[in-house]
Amino acid sequence: MLTQAQAIKPYIVQLRRAIHRQPELGFDVYKTAELVARTLRELGVEAQTGVGKTGVVGYLGEGDGPVVAIRADMDALPIQEINAVEYRSEVPGKMHACGHDAHTAMLLGAARLLTGAKFKGQIRLLFQPSEEDFDSEGVSGAPRRIADGALRGVDHVIALHVDGALEAGTIGLEAGQVAAAVDTFKAHVLGRGGHGARPHKALDPIWLTAQVLNALYAVPSRRVDPFAPDVLTVGVVRGGTAENVIPETVYLEGTLRSMDAETRALLIAEVERCLGIARALGGDYALEVVRGYPSLFNDAGVVDVMRQAGRDLLGEAGLRPREPSMGAEDFSYMTQLAPGAMFRLGTKAPGGPPRYVHTPDFDIDEDALPVGAAMLAETALRLLKQAGHA
To answer: Are 141 and 159 in contact (CB under 8 A)?
Structure first.
């Protein structure tokens, strides 16, 4: 598969650059979805549109027998690109800073490879919107696609994610929990406003917030098991309008990351406990917790198949351990329904600096594109073969 993928590298590169020039956010991936559906049909692949709002599903093979799904996300980020490349984003304030343009192009490349393969069963190509964002009901792309039946009857599901810290030509892979669950807390610390010269006549919510913040930042080190990975980060503190006015409220917003259900529940409970300090000091609080993606679990059996495919395609030197990340990924909803795994695809130019996602200068070494396409196609075929003999 890698030899065949190398032969179609210009095809994959062309698709990636076309998508990169026209980034779209959230569920508004209309141009990208149109390109995907058109490309699939040109390959002779049945394409269903409007799945999970703006998603596309491609169907290869027969419906009878095992089903393996491959997922790629399509949405970009609200970041202004600073790269001086000929394929840079043409849309102000938007760019593919997380590599979803490459994910989509590689799955289209895998589709082209698979059209020439013989196999029993079905390979389902899942092109997903809104991995980075939510709709008005707070739902991301994966659950919307699941609700529309995109994973109905699927036996295994696989995916990849670019990794700018790994060299092109390598993959990172590990079984077990590899990405965190994520929750968001939004809180108002409520005091009583007044004149800055008469603080004793007010109840300063900035002072209350200082006590709350001190408690919040102690949670990971003093309230959670040291062997349980967790993160509590406050990213927004907002309050006050003038230097001599004590405000009524201070707004806080933060993120919670965890790998297991017990720690996840504990973090949420501790946030509320910490905010209770404001109440104990005479103030009050209002708290909203927005539950986000569950943690991502890589199935050991699927990882074994991926690892052997990687060993055969890239050699032992091409395999790297995948370090668990406290980042989150809504592919985790899919692996809750079917055994699955996601591998990291190295995209760093040999000898070059790391390129980290969600930054305005993120880019990839396009030599990685055939590797990703070949790995997706080869793993899917091997999973089908294995399932057919089960």
So the answer is: no
Supply the Cα-derived Rg of the chain in whole angstroms: 23
User: CA angle 71-163-236, nearest 5°?
Assistant: 90
Please write the tens of the pLDDT for every residue from 323-379.
899 999 999 999 999 999 999 999 999 999 999 999 999 999 999 999 999 999 999
Residues 322 and 306: their CA atoms lie apart, in Å, by 13
User: What are the CB-based long-range contacts (under 8 Å, 24+) for 205-209?
Assistant: 205/239, 205/246, 205/247, 205/248, 205/249, 205/250, 205/278, 205/283, 206/239, 206/240, 206/246, 206/247, 206/250, 208/250, 208/277, 208/278, 208/281, 208/283, 209/237, 209/239, 209/250, 209/252, 209/278
Tell me the per-residue pLDDT of 180-237, one tens digit each, with 9 for 90 and over. 999 999 999 999 999 999 999 999 999 999 999 999 999 999 999 999 999 999 999 9
Contacts 24+ apart (CB under 8 A), 197-200: 197/244, 199/246
How many Cα atoms are found within 13 Å in the side-chain-facing hemisphere of 143? 13
pTM of the shown model: 0.93
Place 389 in a pLDDT band, splitting at 50, 70 and 90.
Answer: low
By three-state DSSP, how is residue 105 classified?
helix
Q: Is the pLDDT of residue 42 over 80?
A: yes
> Which domains does the chain carry?
2-178+295-388 (3.40.630.10), 181-291 (3.30.70.360)
| Enzyme catalytic residues | 293, 366
Dist CA 330 CA 373 (whole Å):
21
What is the dihedral sign for C-alpha 95, 99, 102, 106? negative
Phi then psi for 143, rounded to 5 degrees?
-60, -35
Q: Is the pLDDT of residue 308 over 90?
A: yes
Handedness of CA 30, 47, 140, 382 (dihedral sign): negative
User: Can you tell me the distance from the alpha carbon of 213 to that of 137, in angstroms, rounded to the nearest whole number?
Assistant: 30
Please give the span between the terminal C-alpha atoms of the chain, in angstroms, as a whole number: 24
